[in-house]
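Hello forum,

I keep getting stuck at the same step: I have a sequence, I want structure tokens, and every attempt I make locally crashes halfway through. Rather than fight my setup again tonight, could one of you with a working pipeline run this one for me? It's a single chain of 197 residues.
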Amino acid sequence: MFIKSKSIVVAAVSSIVVSAALVFTLIGYYMYIELKIRDDEKTSIDSLRKVQSQIFSKQIDVSQLTCAIEKSDGGRGRPTIRGIIKNGSTRDIYDIVLKVKFLDVSGASLYEVIFRPLEPTYGTNPIGHISQSHLLGYSRKNALKAKESNAFKRVILNSPKEILSFLDTRKGQRPASLKKSRAWTGSYAWEVISVSL
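Reply #2:
Ran it on my machine without issues. Output:
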């Protein structure tokens, strides 16, 4: 009888352990499926935003891009990008993220800056791309209306030394023929990264 009662205890404990393992495996699998669904939804939404950006980027035009050392305001002595953004579509744009590349004379990219031209000059969120429409107290008065243009100015806070030394005449590192000009003489390339309508 002693062997049988010991076998029953072992069988009961083994059954509990196997059942617990099965339950935890099912819970883990359920959590994995939920996370996978959320990840798939996020991937789908990101893909749709990318397609939307590609479609609307054809109707957005950025012109008169310049970069120079700011002479006034709070950004004095810092490089500043200025330009005009035009919405050629029939819908209002409430948030737009642009990437501007600084190109040298051979067309090589020296520096990229990503910013929102509809935000104030100094911006609000330099690292992430959180849409301002999701923040408390956001006003939609900064929207770029359909078929309208808007001038923008963005102070570049983390400009590389190469661009700073080129723009800043006080450094004395530029050729004499360029010392009087404080503007970037290379070219620019721009790209729309995201658009919120």
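The beta strands are 60-69, 79-87, 95-103, 109-115, 149-155, 187-196. If your local run keeps crashing, start a new thread with the error log.
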